[in-house]
Every structure is written in structure tokens, then in C-alpha cells.
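tool_call: predict_structure(chain=1)
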Amino acid sequence: MTENLDYVQRGFRILHPVMAEYIALEMRREYQDKWWSVVLELLGNPNGELPTYGEWDDLKDSLDVANCIRLIDRGWGSLFKRVMSKTDYRTWAKELMGVRNVVSHRGSKDMSQDDAERALDTMTRLCTAFDQQKSEEIRAILRELRYGTSLGSTTLTESRANMLQKQGYEKTGSGILTQIAGSKLPSWREIIEPHPDVSQGRYLKAEFAADMSQVAIGEGPIEYRDPVEFFARTYVTEGMKGLLHQALKRFSGHNGEPVLQLKTAFGGGKTHSLLALYHMANCNVPL
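tool_result:
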């Protein structure tokens, strides 16, 4: 069974043509009529695998995934460092070379789901340099692999609770997490682990600019539209808990405050608090 590899191959089928076209356009823009000669010089054309001349479309289509990645890497200092917005693109491209090698020699052994998710995430990031829409198509494949549907998660799982129980924690009848007597106190990072984007220093600030109106009409980043993705990236502060608690009391007719004033400075979390309230009321997300 190679189910995870199949997802990765689907991602490459989206990434490859837009990457090849971008590279060919930039090479032709920079080197004009000599662009293909520069391509052959950078790649070395081992065993004469690439044509020595031809029409632009034919030459572009002859660049496979591996050669596209090699061109980004080998032509970084002379061209792509200037036309691609950040150095990370080169790193992501080189990482995908290893993934491409695994896919090309797939055999009967499948890739782990963690590795497949990482590969698709890296493809998504690299593809933003070429085509934002295609990048979102790859992101949809990642969601399909992770949740079983490209629409995002629809239910919460017990996996986190089971992990915490193994680490010496249990939930009381009221839902409060307490430490089991005699168990070893774990590190705070085992209980509240930063999102990989944050812990690895690769999050995009633009993804954290929430827009309430976009979410309300079903648009914007999946991290805000999908309730589970939203709460997975959001630390629920005491203030947010108080807001949600009062809203629940009001919704259920138990004399919750009818008017709540959010007093925070700019960037203090007002929109995040409103999004949390929106998802709780709209999707019945358990707290």
C-alpha cells in the first residue's frame, strides 16, 4: 500500500507545471535568446537527456521536477535570489528533492503520514512563489490527507486527551484536567506545545491577520474558517474564556451579561475573541 505517497504525487502534479513555467519565463527574461544555453550549462545535461534546441513550450515541458529544483538551487546566486522574495524558497526546493527521490523509487513501501504531510506543506509554501491558487490546491490535498476531506476538520478527536492521560493527566467529571497522583510532572512544552510554524520560526505573519467578514462568508485562510484549525492555533486566554462563558450563559438563558466590552490595545486579540465566539455559536465546538 502506498496511499500517502499517492497524495504526495498529486501535489507534485500540481506543483511541477507551474514551477517549470515560472523558471522558464524568468530564465528567458534574464538571458533572452541564450536562456536555454544557460539552462544546459547549469544542469550539465547528463547523458543528453535534454534537447539542445526547440520551441519555448517544448523546452519548458522537458524540465522535470528534479531539473526544476536543480535550476533554482544552481541559479540562485545569479538569478533566483533576486526574483524570488525570500531565501526560504531555495531551502524548500532542496527539501523537495529528497521527497522527489522517494516518490521516484517508491517500490511497495509507503511514506509515513507525518512525512507526507510535511512534503505537501513544503510544496504549498514553495508554490506560493509561482501561483497562489495552485498553492491552495496543494493545501487542499494536505487537508484531505489529514482529515479525510479537503473541506477541513469537522470533528474533534480524542488523541490529545489520550496522550495527556499517558503523561499522567485525567479529566474530572467537570472537564477539568488534573494530574494523577504520583505521576511525574511533564515539561510545559509537552502540555502546551507551540504550533510547528511557531516553534520552527517559519510562520507567515500575513496568515495571522484575521478578518471576521471573510470568515462569515466562508472565505479567507482555512486556519480561520475551520473551527478545529482555528482553536489548534489559538491560545484561549482567561479573558477569552470569560467572554465565551458569559456568552454561553446568555445563549442558554442563565443570566449571562447582555453587553460585553472588549478592552484591549491594538493587536490585543479582539478579532480572535470574536472568531472564537463565532465558531462556538455557529459550530457547537466543545470547549
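agent: The longest helix spans residues 3-31. Proceeding to next step.
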